[in-house]
Every structure is written in C-alpha cells, then in structure tokens.
From TrEMBL:
The keyword Transmembrane is annotated on this UniProt entry: yes
Keywords: Membrane, Transmembrane, Transmembrane helix
Record bears the keyword Phosphoprotein: no
Segments traversing the membrane: 12-38, 290-315, 342-364, 370-390, 402-421, 427-452, 473-495, 651-669, 1023-1042, 1054-1073
Name of protein: Cache domain-containing protein
C-alpha cells in the first residue's frame, strides 16, 4: 500500500484470507516439491539401482549356467555313430536337464554345417537348418571377435538373435569342446528366464547394451538388436560416460523423446551394461495428482469454514440504522489489552491440542477420510472456542443468536454422523473423537457463565524469566497458534494422507499391471516352450521358473506373484462413496494411468479383481480362466520417508515457512493496528498541572535570549487564549492586549500601522482614549487563521507581526492552522493579488522567516470526563451504581474537550428512557439517539474542527471514519491528529468519539469525499494491474499442478521457475506500487 492509498477493512479481511489461503498453498507446494525431490533423488534412483542390480545378477548367473551347461553336456550317445546326413533328435533322458537352459542345441563343423540338432521343446522349426555359417555369432567366434571368458575359463560367444523360424527373441551361445568326437562347435539357442518377457512394474523398463550403445536385449519386445540407445537418445552424455567407464551411475536421459531416470551397471565378464529406466513424466503425474487432490480437499474445507464464519457473523445485531460508518465484522478478533490473559490461554490450549494430535498421528495410522473429517471438526471447534471466548454477542439470549448456534451445531452433528457411518464396524474411534468434542463444548459452555479461575490467571501472568512480553505479541502468538492448528497442520495431514492414498492406488496399479503381464507371459510360454508328451510336469516347473526369474518388483520385502485356486475372497469390503468421489475427482494427466483409474475402488463390481488389506500386506486378486492371480506385497507405509539429510531439509523448510508466516502476522498486526503509535496522546499543556507547563512557557517568554514569543496552535474551543493569559500571568506580564484578526475585514490595506493596531485591538479613531501600542508589553494575536485565503489579509497580518517584533514586543500567536497551511497557500496560489509584483514572494519569505522563529505549541482535545460528572451532578465512585453504568457510554462520548461536556444534561434527557421488562422496570440509554443528538448539537463545533484541518488530515480522518482502519504510512498526519486529540488510542487508532466519526461520514459532501479520494490516493496502477498479475501467477501454478510436461520438463526447471517467480514478484510489486503513488 502506497503512502496515500486507503486502507480499508476489506484490505484487512483480504490480508487475513491471503494468509490463511497462502499458508495452505505454500505448505502444499512445499510438500509437493519435497515429495517430488524425494522421489526424484532418492526413491526412484534406489529402486532403479535395485532393479539394475537384480537384472545384472540374474543375467550373469543365468549366462554362466548356460555356458557351463552347453560346454559340459554329454553328446557321446548322439555322436557314437558316424553322421552322413543332417540328423534331428528330440529331448531324451540324457539331455533332459538342458531344457532349463536351452530350447535347441546344435552341433556344427568348423565351416558351419550342421551335424545334427537336438530339440528340447516340442518344435521342429530348426529341423531343416543345414548351415549356420552366415550367422553373426559363428562369424564372431571364428574371427575371435568379442569372445568372452566364463568363470570356468570357457571361451564363448553369445549374441541376441530374432529367430527366423518363429520371430522369437533368443540368446544364442557357441562354444568349442575339444573332447567332442565330431570336430566343430556347440550352438545353443536359449530363451533367457531373466531377460526375455520380463515382468516389471508400471513405468519401468530396461535395456542391455554394449559399449557402442547397441541394444542386445530390451524389456519391450521388438527393440532388441534393432536400435542403438545412444542414437535414439538425447542428453545421453552421462549414460555414455558410465557405460564406457564401466561404472554404476545414475542420472537423466531423454530416451525416445521421453525423460527417463536411469541407473546403469556393468555386467562382469562381458562388455555389456544394464540400463534400468523409469519414465519421469509418471513421476510428475503422481505428484500432480497428490497436489491437485490436496488442493481440492483444502479448498472444500476453506469454503466450509467461510460459510460457517459468515453465518456466525451475519446473524448478529442488525446494523444500527442511524449510523453511516461500517462496523468491522471481525472486530472481536482485533487485539485488545484486556484480553491478554485469554490470548495466552488460547495459545497454550491450541499448542497443546496440536501436540496431542501430532502424537496420535505419529503412532496411530488413521484412514484418510477420517483424518479429513477430524481436520474439519478441528477447524470448526477451534473457531467456536475463539468465537465464544472473544465475541461480545457470544451469549446473547435473543432468538436470532439461538438460530446461529443451531446452524453451527447442525454442521457438527452432520460431520459426526459421517464419522460414525464410516466406522460402522467399530465405534470406538468415533466415540473417542466425540468425547473430545464434548470436552470442548464444556469449556465453551463454562466460559459463557464463569470467569477465568484465579489460578489460571496467575499461571498466565507467571513470568519465570522476568521478560516483559507486550500483549500485541501474545495476540500474534495466539493468531499463529490458531493458524498452525486449523490451517498449517491440517494441510500437512491432508497432504500426507492424500499422498498415502495416491501411493496406494499407484501401488495397486503396479500390482495389476504386473498381474496382467504375469498372465500374458503364462500364455506366451505355452507357445514359446511347447511340451513333449509325457513331460508335462517337468515343463510346468520350467515355465514356473521362467515366471519367477523374470519377475522384478523393485519393492523391498515383497512376495512373488502366485497362482491361487481360490477365486473368491472370504471378506470383500464394499466400495464406498469416497471411492466413487475419487473416481470422479482424481485427475488423469496421462492416458497410460487412465487405464487403471478403476483401482480407486476396492474391487471390481463383478469381483473380477479384488484389493484386500491384510495386516501390512496389500493383495490384489485378479481372476482369469485358470483361477486367480494373487499379488501379495507389503503395501505403502505411513512412515517418515527419506534419509536423515532429507528429513533435516524438510524440517528446515517447514520451520522457515512457519517463521515467514509468523513474521507476516507481526507485520500485518503492526500495519493494521498501528502499535508503533500506541504511546501518542493528545497534548495536555493546558490541563497537565503536574508538569506545570504554564510556568515553563512563561520562563521562555521572560528569557531575553529567546525569540519574540509563542505560536499556540489548537482546534476550536480548545482554550488557547485562556492558556496564553495564564502563561503571561505566570511570567509576571501585566500590560497585555489582544489583537483579534476577526476585525481584518474593517482594515484598509493602505492604513497606517497605528490605525491598524487600534482597529484590531477594538478601538476606533472617534474614541477619546486612543490606543497606545507602546504602553503594552505583550500582544496576543488571536484567530491568525481568519481569512487565510486572502493575500491582502495575510499581508496585513504579516505587517502587524513584523512591526511588533521590530519594536521588541512579545507576541503570542493563536491559530487553528499550522504554518504549513499558510505556506501552501503561497506555494500554489489560485487567485491573483492586487499587491505589487514581487510582493507575494516577499510575503512568503517573510512568513517563513517569522513563523519558523516561533516555538509551535500544539494544544489538543484532552479527556474531560470530570467535567461531565460535574455538569450532571454526579460524583464518580469506585463501585458505580446501576445508573452510572447505564450512562457510562454518554460520559465516554462527551468526555472530551471543554465544549462537549456542557451538552451532557440536554443529551441525557433526550436519550435516557424507561423500558418495560417482565422482571423490573429499568432505564436504558439509546446509543443511537445519543450519537445523533451529540452530532446535531455539536455540528458547528465539529464543522469548525473539520475546516481547520489540512487536506491530508481530512483524508486520513475520512479513511478512519469509514471502517475504523487507516494507512499508517501517512505517519505525519496521524501524528498530528493524535496530538490534537482527534485520534486517540483505543487498542488501535480511533476517532475520539462516535458522533464526530459519524459527522465525518454524514457531513462531508459527496463532492468533497470524491475530491479527497482522488487527491490523496494513488493512481491505482498497482491496484488494477496486480489483479491480472496475480491471475497470471495462479495460472502458472495451475499449469504446474496439472503436470503439463511441456511447461516443466524436470525437477530442476520446476525449482528454477518457482525461484524465478519468487524473485520477480517483489520487484514488479515494488515497481507497480511506486507507480501508484500520486
């Protein structure tokens, strides 16, 4: 807010809403960033590391076993007879064990012609293959190119191939056993259990590549031997360096135009490396789902609380019809010194509740829906505790207030009903929550009828370290504890539970995805490994080994996927309304994820799949023709995720956010309630007998080295002339005279100085006793403000003052305006003067020189309740009577200045009336009529005050009168008004009484109000543009929340974008704010 802009109650309410909503948004964005950071730098890299390690280990083990088996296989039985033509053998008792390793085994001569083939599966595709000399593995073995050594020092060549016969992917081995009867080489074709048709979680893939980037094996069919990983990827330098350097490394690579996190690991004894990949767009999609659902949940909670707040505030006393100023709806939440102990008590209560809830959440896992309802109840009860503790109408017996209580109770009953409905099997948990609510209701009920016990008051006032903490800080701590309890911590809980909920859905997605892959591989293995008659059990075990060795879960503490004959679950938990809500609200940012949207439910409606939670394991049972597939894994856990360094970083970030929010609360409290001005009081030079200002000013006049006099400035009827006479008497001056500038209208500008003094002193030339100015020591010049807009009148005033000063006379100037108001008239003249050219400049300089030499003594409107009591004939007592309590508002209203107390008898007679009561008749003071009668009777007085104020002070009063708030950046005007007594400290700056406040609103014409607005407020550049600017920021955040990959490509870019916004916003805000100043 610029110096001259208005600060209204709408700004205060908007700032409060901004803090509440902003705290939620900041927490959600921060927690999302931390979740993304953890997944990006810890969870996924760890899983990729485990995946690459598992693949490399299983592949190396299987590769070594294949080489050994091929080298050591017994061929004597087959080679006992000379081979004259190509022979074809099927599996027999001598080679049945080879089916674990190979599909076919061939023996070729040194030039590549086949002696015979041995089929280990019921396929004869290779039966007529006579020559393998053109195959790449044969050529490499003959040329000793890329020959590997096994752990048993067996030289061999292994190459990936796509079978010409059935287009299946295989690994072909070739070795030389010199003990064979037939000279040549052994060739074995294998479908690797660990590599071919692997079963991976959703979003994961892997490739086995050589040092040139050629893909030997790939988890997705159709890519092996057909692409070079380095050629189809971008940002591949890290991966290439790790492959060439034969190290285990991780990083980011753009593979086939998709960002992929990778982990690369060399395979010992080969020139191959395992490259495990995870699609980073799925990582962003998951975080975006959590962020979006959390925002939806928080927005729903905020809307509910806004409705409850509005209902509780609008159902109150109707706006008093005679008043024109606005009452602040949240007046009960403004800081008040008398509530210091209550602020301490509420802060302690909220921090205690927060600690209890945090402890329960840490040790007891609670379902997300329950947590959400608890958060709503927590926010509602915290608001009710504050409302029924601080609101002035909290215990009104009127019907409209009972309607308010009924509405609030209805909301609480509905939420508790939902709580019990969700726990229909076990009422223990909702009963505990209900008991806690009843304890809150008891505290509220007790507070309506009983004051705080003395012991609690003593505890609140106990100060162990003797440190003084002002009540405004306790008020800020109370607001912060309230914000922490009902906004920040619930937002954290909602995000945590939403994260767990989405984690569970994605977990089930992995289970379902792998179950489908499992069944697909089961079907494919029947075609890949056809059975010989009579060996069904052996081949069933072989296929089971293929299923087990090719399964990679990437999760820790998992169990394999198993086949179950039981197609029905014993206990199927029905789908809930909340799961249906998720079906409609869970955002789909990726078509691949959308295929598994049904997993938000507990089971399929035809029970073709069922999700069950048993102890700490999550089971997805998927049905097919042969029975059921049970995927039993340890489900996601609600524990603190991450390393100690990550948890430290997260805790430091949360503490930083909390520090910023608390600092923001302190800033707003100081800005809106102007605590820096709390020590300012009206100047009481004329009423403060203790300081004896009269004698002090008298000594100033007597001092020969002092200037020529004093300048007494004060509002109308502030007793300036009386105070001046008292000063002169204390100084011992007896020859004084008063010159009234009200007689300037009868003075000729060309008259001599003696004639002017005669007229101003009240004498005429026809009178016998002529006025002799030389006989007087002190001249009191009053009403200096009269005819201030006339250059001629001001010229005469200046002429008189200059003459008296030149004659060494003491001058006491009395004025209702400041010298700056006189100077402003010369600086911006609006009319031409009849004075000679250059005279205006001379007068202006003379005014500045003369008035700057006069000490300015500002006399304010001080509190004067004693005179009200005296006028009414009442003596104040320590224990006031019921009548005195009744008329207290009138005493406070009229107990200012020397004029207003004189109106007390008349206003009391007009506003005090007797009303009928079923119990007794009693007198009541009509506050509305009291204010209006005071305004009418004091209209002239108030009008004189208003006219004596400079424009800036009028604008500040007008701003303050409208809704009780003002812009404290206009500190000079506020300082002046508080010294004048027009603005006093009542827990914040306020106009000294209600009638003058209403006068400012009702008596200022529309034209003058608009002129004050236009003249003193900024051009509004920032006020208009910042709306658009904020919308742009919100749109950016929404796009980020929607997980658009084209906007934010990776985590570093996301952090950089948010960081850039953080830098740009203050700069643009400052620039636009400066442009908004007039």
């Amino acid at each position: 807010v610029a110096e001259d802009e208005r600060l209204s109650s709408k700004d205060v309410i908007s700032s409060g809403i901004s803090v509440v909503v902003g705290a939620s948004i900041i927490m959600i964005v921060f927690l999302s960033l931390m979740s993304h950071y953890y997944d990006y730098y810890h969870k996924i890299p760890q899983r990729l590391t485990g995946l690459s390690e598992a693949i490399g280990t299983r592949f190396a083990k299987e590769n070594s076993a294949n080489v050994t088996a091929l080298f050591e296989m017994q061929l004597r039985e087959i080679e006992k007879d000379a081979v004259t033509s190509l022979q074809y053998h099927v599996v027999s008792g001598t080679n049945v064990l080879l089916r674990e390793n190979f599909k076919t085994v061939s023996k070729i001569n040194p030039v590549g012609k086949a002696y015979y083939h041995v089929a280990l599966i019921n396929k004869d595709d290779i039966k007529n293959t006579k020559n393998l000399s053109t195959r790449p593995y044969y050529k490499d073995f003959i040329a000793s190119a890329n020959v590997w050594q096994s752990a048993d020092s067996i030289s061999y060549v292994m190459r990936p191939v796509v079978s010409i016969e059935d287009q299946s992917e295989e690994a072909v081995y070739i070795v030389n056993n010199s003990d064979d009867r037939f000279k040549g080489y052994r060739v074995g074709a294998s479908q690797l259990k660990s590599i071919h048709r692997p079963i991976l979680p959703f979003g994961y893939q892997f490739a086995i590549i050589d040092d040139t980037g050629e893909v030997w094996f790939h988890s997705e069919e159709g890519r092996a031997t057909l692409e070079n990983f380095f050629d189809v990827s971008r940002q591949v330098n890290d991966a290439k360096a790790a492959v060439l350097g034969r190290i285990n490394a991780q990083g980011l690579v753009n593979y086939r135009d998709q960002g992929q996190l990778f982990n690369v690991r060399p395979i010992k004894g080969t020139n191959l490396s395992v490259l495990a990949l995870y699609d980073i767009s799925l990582l962003r999609t998951r975080v975006s789902e959590v962020l979006t659902l959390t925002c939806i949940a928080v927005i729903m909670a905020i809307v509910l609380m806004l409705v409850i707040t509005v209902l509780s505030l609008i159902i109150r006393n109707p706006k008093l019809g005679l008043y024109r100023y606005d009452s602040f709806l949240f007046e009960f939440l403004t800081p008040k010194k008398k509530y210091r102990d209550i602020y301490i008590l509420l802060s302690s209560l909220f921090f205690t509740i927060l600690l209890i809830i945090a402890t329960i959440d840490f040790f007891i896992p609670i379902e997300p829906t329950r947590v959400y309802i608890i958060c709503l109840l927590l926010a509602i009860w915290a608001y009710l505790i504050v409302y029924y503790t601080l609101h002035p109408y909290r215990n009104k017996p009127d019907l409209k207030f009972r309607v308010r209580d009924l509405l609030l109770l209805s909301v609480i009953v509905i939420l508790n009903f939902m709580m019990f409905k969700m726990n229909s099997n076990n009422y223990m948990f909702p009963i505990i929550i209900l008991m806690l609510q009843l304890s809150c209701a008891f505290m509220i009920f007790r507070g309506q009828f009983y004051a705080l016990p003395d012991k609690i008051k003593n505890i609140c006032r106990y100060n162990l370290f003797k440190i003084h903490i002002a009540y405004r800080y306790w008020y800020s701590i109370f607001l912060f504890s309230w914000l922490l309890l009902v906004v920040i911590f619930p937002t954290y809980l909602i995000f945590k539970k939403t994260d767990f909920l989405i984690d569970t859905v994605w977990f089930k997605t992995d289970q379902m995805f792998m179950a489908r892959k499992f069944m697909a591989k089961e079907t494919a293995l029947k075609n890949d490994l056809p059975v010989f008659e009579g060996l069904e059990s052996e081949y069933k075990k072989l296929r089971s080994n293929h299923l087990g060795d090719g399964l990679y879960t990437v999760y820790r503490e998992t169990e394999n996927i198993i086949r179950s004959k039981d197609t029905h679950s014993d206990t199927i938990i029905g789908n809930s309304n909340f799961q249906e809500f998720l079906w409609h609200t869970r955002p789909i940012f990726d078509e691949r994820v959308g295929k598994f949207q049904a997993l938000v439910y507990q089971h399929a409606h035809d029970t073709s799949w069922v999700s069950e939670k048993k102890t700490d394991k999550l089971t997805v049972r998927y049905l097919n023709k042969e029975g059921a597939i049970d995927v039993n894994w340890r489900g996601p856990q609600e524990i603190l995720k991450g390393t100690s360094g990550f948890l430290t970083l997260k805790a430091a970030g949360i503490l930083l956010i909390l520090s910023i929010l608390f600092s923001l609360i302190l800033f707003f409290v100081d800005r809106f309630f102007a605590f820096r001005f709390r020590h300012l009081k009206p100047n009481d030079f004329d009423t403060n007998q203790k300081e004896n200002y009269v004698k002090k000013f008298g000594r100033m006049l007597l001092d020969e080295k002092s200037n020529s006099g004093l300048l007494l400035i004060g509002l109308p009827f502030s007793g300036k002339r009386t105070f001046a006479i008292e000063i002169l008497k204390s100084a011992g001056y007896t020859k004084d005279v008063t010159l009234s500038m009200l007689r300037l209208d009868h003075v000729d500008i060309k008259a001599g100085i003696s004639d002017i003094l005669n007229l101003l002193a009240g004498f005429t030339l026809k009178e016998k006793d002529q006025f002799d100015w030389e006989d007087h020591e002190v001249f009191i010049i009053e009403h200096l403000e009269h005819n201030i807009k006339s250059f001629n009148a001001n010229h005469i005033k200046l002429k008189v003052i200059s003459f008296l000063i030149s004659k060494r006379k003491r001058v006491v100037l009395i004025s209702e305006v400041f010298p700056s108001q006189i100077f402003a008239f010369y600086e911006n003249p609006k009319q031409e003067s009849s004075l000679p050219m250059g005279s205006l400049e001379d007068d202006f300089n003379s005014w500045r020189n003369i008035l700057s030499a006069f000490p300015q003594v500002l006399i304010g409107i001080t509190e004067n309740t004693e005179k009200v009591y005296r006028v009414l004939g009442i003596k104040p007592q320590k224990n006031p009577t019921k009548y005195e309590v009744t008329i207290t508002p009138l005493i406070e209203e009229l107990g200012h200045s020397k004029f207003l107390p004189t109106l007390a008898p008349i206003i009391l007679s007009k506003t005090l009336y007797t009303t009928e009561n079923p119990n007794e008749k009693y007198e009541q003071l009509d506050i509305q009529r009291m204010v209006m009668h005071t305004q009418n009777l004091g209209h002239g007085y108030y009008n004189d005050i208003w006219n004596a104020l400079p424009t800036r002070e009028r604008y500040l009063l007008f701003d303050l009168a409208k809704d009780g708030f003002l812009n404290i950046k206009n500190r000079n005007s506020l300082f002046s008004l508080m010294k004048k007594g027009l603005v006093v400290w009542k827990n914040r700056p306020a106009i000294f009484n209600y009638s003058f406040k209403n006068f400012v609103i009702t008596s200022v014409s529309m034209n003058e109000a608009l002129r004050l607005e236009n003249k003193n407020r900024g051009k509004g550049t920032w006020a208009n543009i910042r709306i658009v600017f904020y919308l742009m920021i919100i749109a950016t955040i929404v796009f980020i929340a929607l997980g658009k990959p084209e906007l934010i490509k990776d985590f570093e870019a996301l952090v950089g974008t948010l960081g850039g916004l953080g830098v740009v916003i203050p700069l643009v805000s400052r620039f636009l704010a400066s442009g908004g100043q007039k």
